[in-house]
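Box 3.1. Reading complex inputs
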Amino acid sequence: METPVLGKSTPEGARDYLVPSRITPGTFFALPQSPQLYKQSLMISGFDRYFQIAKCFRDEDLRADRQPEFTQVDLELSFTDRAGVMSLTEKLLKHLLKQVGRSCTIPFPRIAYQDAILRFGTDAPDVRFGLEIEDVSGLFTDTAFTVFKNALSSGGVVRAINLKGHSSALSRKDLDDLTPLVHSCKGKGIAWIRMTEDGPQSPIIKYFSEDESQSLYRKLHAHPGDVIVFAADTEKIVCRSLSAVRLYLGRKLGLIDDTQLAFTWVEDFPLFEHDETGRTASVHHPFTSPIEADIHMLETDPFAVTSDAYDIVLNGSEIGGGSMRIHNAELQRRVLSILGIDEQTSHDTFGFLLEALQYGAPPHGGIALGVDRIMMLLLGTESIRDVIAFPKTQKAACLMTGAPSLVPREQLDELHIESIAPDINDA
RNA sequence: GGGGGUGUAGCGAAGCUGGUUAUCGCGCCGGCCUGUCAAGCCGGAGAUCGCGGGUUCAAUCCCCGUCACUCCCGCCA
């Protein structure tokens, strides 16, 4: 099934690519960030299966694994559930791997979002190696060590990784080299303790009480030959920092088997989060269903509500994500209302969906898999642009054709557009 | 918007602390040889060292600026 590319701009999610309408002055189409609303409409209208190899567009800054136009295998099923989508996806990927002479065992392991964040510091964990993170905040509630004390008293956390048995492989300089890495994650620094036969060596150990040290070693099962690294800050910064440290050291210590394909499901995401301005936003998108058991606390405790969404991760890269969708108009209204999207805006933007839901929609859900990222991982390349013909540069330009480019003023006039950018009309 | 890296022949790279004709591989051109199959041998062309400025007797190398590409943070699923 194919769906339109010229669609409607929606307030949620990434920045849209806009296309001006010549026929209706002053109005714009948006290129799809995903065919989400179309495929749901198809389910509601009675198609029980859908798939599409879909081009998607998101006007955000680029990364090694991200460019603004990309390709998804987009699929949706009615009368299914999370297990149904997961099972289908696993079979699809297994089949795909077979075609290219690789293999995997299904079902894939699953990890809850909160566990992923705690143990790996990220919702896209690379599970090919250990070096897992442990929370040690509880051991330092009354600590004299100001760095930990300040982090904890302002609501932060102290977490650590025990680099078991790697002490001899890590010089003092190696440990000091972690500092700039942590700085790049907005962290203030990183502390470490080296466990030796002659006792712990560390610039910070002198600030710990005997109790603190002992319970720390017990909790982390620390023995001579180990090195413990710490971060203390807000949870977000600690996770980001230790995740970066973990990956860096995993590579440096040669712990990552790059012939391995380690798939993981990440599930039980929260339904909502605070966006940068502190407002309530969808973690996934506004059509994601909460799990049945949490619906009752949507209004009373929205941030505790778990969503029926799932991501699939391969070797530490998110290669797809999906969810069960809301198939009830009333529930959809409640969620939009919690997101602060007023009745009028809901109606103007998603009215067609709300109306369709009213006629009785089947339970449905699906997933979208990132084709470019999967290709990148299967080929072992380091950039998504290695597997895209005519890729965009980091400034989202096409070097070969020179797009984007200036256009003659007449063309703008026809589209009822006037540019405020300097020199734009001199093409 | 912020931080880091890179820019040397068509392509991929080397060039230590500034010092005579900027090096190597692949490719290209010419010749020789050859039962080819990623051939071999000999010879050759090809570089405003991203661009602009500065320091210096002397700059690919140091400094400032600028452009491009790239990695990361913000942003994005």
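In summary: DSSP finds twelve helices and 16 strands in chain A.
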